[in-house]
User: Which sequence fits this backbone?
């Protein structure tokens, strides 16, 4: 049988190190699907239930492997379905290549069935590189460029293959003549550390500071030891952007935790009180949670020069790898005594953990959602991988879950999309089949696409070395975060027509698929349910029946937020009394902690 363009594409992806392609078949990619079936090397096709899940899985694969994730979809509707997951990858700077089918070349421009202008469609999400192959000779350089640009620019790229091009005879080596392009596979060596004079200038700024704060993000996930050494040298505290939650363990007494509306009071006080700010690998967007402009001198480290000074006026930007740059900077930093500033940070951290513990044990009907996450932390197995969805689940994850060294964790940061937790978890099991994985999901995201993800889990779990994948669902029958945003930001009562979700038997559905499942509706059963899930011989779903009235309080409530909440109650919120009681209990617990 002749070697086709599709055969060449699959082989080329393998040569680049790709070992998984997430996708869904369709007649617009029959050539590529056939080539995947014929390929004899280690490259798996992972069939999903919807193309959006394929793109989420590719993004999750990139996050947990550090390599390029690849997804595949057919022309027209299949390609369109990829977009949300690809935007998730784009906004979190993850390297993902999308391979997409198209109608045959002779039909293009003829208003043909499923004909969509795919180059225009993907031009924004894959703005670094999107091209359509119109000849077999292009296949090599299009795949090479898509892979290299995705990897080295940490971007989404896209290659479109009309279905007739997929079946053309392959051209592995273009002729050596005018008008051809000759690309190759190989590593890219870049400067990892800024010049020594720039490091010296950064050290001067940091050494001059009396109250140093560090804000670390996803770009510092591999720099754990270096962040700890710098914090110890400077007597600094470390706040973490949500995508950087795993960059330093939460058991360090000067780690203030998350920052922002999902953050901690300790992080807010750290930012309010510092006179010097070191930002490492973070593009945290909310200015109101950073020091007031002009109050703190700032040094920023990032691999992308476009990010320097984007969120806070940086006096000096260092473009380089966070770990290598911090390691080169450390010898130039002068040790600071751990005086009143550092002791204050540690006191704030200790007090905040006491507040969280008190809040987690506040009475609720039937279960306080905070307790679900609080009970999880001490039970997390070593080397666990955690994924989380958007919504109130992200609030409790950001604050209550204590990550330890060696754990990995992620969610949709820049896009804050609903729906990635379960596809991320599936991708994590492909990347780390020997590690336990936990997905934390709200019932809104579960109904949106999570139930379909369970079907994929039921199909795959027997192939995993460690079969523990725990899906925890907060069943509160409410799109809870938006409900609270309506009250506290908009001053509007809960609109039941938009916010109330249909009840669904999540545990029974999981059991029907052959998975383990427990429905929990008493607080005393939370801990044993987690224990059972981590001892199980197969994936398990925990359906936690939680109280939607428990408020996801910001670290500090402004007068504007308080007035909006009172307005919502005054206008007849259907759960006014229940939420008011819950808010009072939360504040009372905080005061007594």
Assistant:
């Amino acid at each position: 049988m002749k070697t086709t363009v599709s055969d060449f594409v699959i082989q080329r992806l393998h040569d680049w190190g790709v070992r998984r392609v997430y996708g869904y078949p369709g007649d617009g990619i029959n050539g590529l699907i056939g080539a995947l079936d014929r390929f004899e090397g280690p490259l798996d096709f992972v069939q999903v239930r919807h193309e959006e899940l394929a793109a989420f899985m590719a993004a999750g694969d990139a996050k947990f492997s550090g390599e390029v994730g690849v997804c595949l979809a057919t022309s027209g509707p299949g390609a369109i379905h990829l977009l949300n997951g690809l935007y998730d990858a784009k906004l979190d700077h993850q390297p993902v290549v999308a391979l997409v089918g198209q109608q045959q070349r002779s039909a293009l421009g003829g208003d043909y069935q499923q004909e969509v202008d795919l180059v225009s469609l993907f031009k924004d999400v894959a703005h670094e590189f999107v091209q359509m192959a119109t000849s077999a000779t292009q296949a090599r350089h299009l795949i090479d460029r898509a892979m290299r640009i995705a990897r080295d620019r940490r971007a989404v790229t896209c290659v479109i293959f009309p279905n007739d091009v997929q079946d053309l005879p392959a051209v592995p080596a273009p002729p050596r003549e005018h008008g051809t392009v000759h690309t190759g596979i190989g590593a890219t060596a870049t400067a990892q550390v800024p010049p020594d004079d720039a490091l010296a200038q950064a050290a001067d700024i940091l050494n001059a500071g009396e109250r140093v704060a560090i804000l670390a993000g996803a770009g510092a996930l591999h720099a754990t030891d270096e962040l700890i050494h710098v914090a110890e040298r400077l007597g600094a505290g470390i706040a973490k952007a949500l995508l950087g939650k795993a960059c330093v363990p939460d058991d360090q007494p000067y780690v203030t935790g998350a920052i922002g509306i999902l953050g901690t009071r300790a992080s807010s006080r750290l930012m309010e009180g510092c006179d010097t700010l070191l930002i490492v690998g973070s593009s945290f967007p909310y200015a109101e949670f950073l020091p007031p402009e002009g109050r703190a001198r700032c040094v920023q480290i990032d691999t992308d020069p476009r990010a320097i000074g984007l969120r806070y006026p940086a006096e000096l930007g260092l473009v380089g790898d966070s770990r290598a740059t911090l390691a080169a900077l450390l010898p130039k930093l002068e040790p600071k005594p751990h005086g009143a500033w550092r002791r204050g940070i540690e006191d704030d951290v200790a007090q905040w953990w006491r507040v969280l513990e008190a809040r987690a044990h506040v009475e609720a009907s039937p279960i306080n959602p905070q307790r679900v996450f609080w009970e999880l932390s001490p039970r997390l197995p070593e080397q666990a991988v955690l994924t989380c969805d958007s919504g109130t689940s992200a609030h409790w994850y950001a604050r209550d879950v204590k990550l330890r060294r060696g754990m990995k964790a992620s969610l949709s940061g820049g896009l804050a999309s609903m729906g990635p937790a379960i596809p991320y978890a599936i991708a994590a099991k492909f990347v780390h089949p020997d590690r336990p994985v936990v997905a934390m999901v709200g019932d809104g995201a579960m109904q949106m696409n999570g139930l379909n993800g369970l079907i994929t889990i039921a199909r795959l779990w027997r192939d995993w070395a460690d079969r523990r994948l725990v899906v925890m669902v907060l069943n509160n029958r409410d799109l809870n975060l938006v409900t609270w945003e309506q009250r506290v930001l908009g001053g509007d009562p809960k609109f039941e027509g938009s916010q109330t979700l249909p009840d669904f038997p999540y545990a029974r559905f999981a059991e029907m698929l052959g998975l383990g499942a427990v429905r929990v509706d008493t607080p005393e059963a939370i801990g044993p349910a987690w224990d059972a899930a981590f001892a199980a011989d197969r994936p398990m779903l925990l359906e936690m029946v939680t109280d939607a009235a428990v408020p996801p309080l910001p670290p500090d409530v402004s007068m504007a937020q308080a007035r909006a909440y009172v307005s919502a109650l005054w206008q007849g919120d259907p759960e006014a009394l229940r939420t008011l009681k819950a808010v009072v209990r939360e504040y009372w617990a905080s005061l007594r902690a």
Residues 340-360 form the longest helix (21 residues). The mean pLDDT is 96. DSSP finds 23 helices and 18 strands in the chain. Residues 231 and 237 are 6 Å apart (CA to CA).
